[in-house]
Amino acid sequence: MLRFLSGKVVSVSDSIVVIDVAGFGFELLCTGRAAAMCGEGEPALLVTHLQFAETGPSLFGFADERERGLFLKLTTVKGVGGKMAMNILKAASSDRVIDWLVSSDIESLVKIPGIGRKTAERLCFEMHRHLAGGHSDLNIDGVSHEGRSLDLAMEGLRSLGFSQGDVAAVFRKLKNDGAVEEDSTAEQLIRMALKELKRN
């Protein structure tokens, strides 16, 4: 449900991003990387997760599927809700957070607002089974990072009004030119594609 949003950025304030999607303004609480990718008045695509709680629904925004995957794993830990998981991903990149968890770096985790020592210890203990394979263990559903990003980017461009044929052609060109890398995010792919589409 609501796996991503693509539209024009209305405002960016700290970690709150508002995106206009076909006349609807969506407010997202974003990770540091996701917020950094957004510029006011610029097109953006953010991976999302809609969470319902007693206090009401919350919409979270991520730079890519990998961040979303780590967020969802963090919220499986007892006592860690969406806001706390987002605080963790606002404090550092996914790679650094994974390093902290794998190495049981309690001291780095307790510096994050809202994370006490017991919570940090529980995070390291419970997340270790998810991260036994290190950084590569966040590959979701067996689909490559590149494949997920490309699918999201193509869908995002189609939602901005570009035809399927034009979108497919521009990504074929980008791949042939070697511009699409394994770790390219959907946002990076959209920016590259838009430059090509404007030239045409």
Structure description:
This protein is α+β, with helices and mostly antiparallel strands and 200 residues long. Helix content is 46%, strand content 20%. A 5-stranded mixed barrel has the order 1-2-3-5-4, surrounded by 4 helices.
Short description:
With 200 residues, the protein is an alpha+beta fold. Helix content is 46%, strand content 20%.
How does the overall form come out from the CA principal axes?
globular
Question: Helix/strand-derived class?
Answer: alpha+beta
Radius of gyration: 18 Å
Instruction: Report the end-to-end length measured between terminal Cα atoms.
Output: 34 Å
Bin the strand percentage: 15-25%
Average pLDDT value? Answer: 83
This entry's quaternary arrangement is single chain
Low-confidence stretches: 139-144
Task: Record the SSE blueprint.
Blueprint: E1 4-13, E2 16-21, E3 24-30, H1 32-36, E4 43-53, E5 56-62, H2 65-74, H3 82-91, H4 94-102, H5 106-109, H6 117-127, H7 145-159, H8 164-176, H9 186-199
Parallel strand pairs: 3-5
Antiparallel strand pairs: 1-2, 1-4, 2-3, 4-5
Helix pairs in contact: 2-3, 7-8, 7-9, 8-9
Key traits:
9 helices; alpha+beta; globular; five-stranded mixed barrel; 200 residues
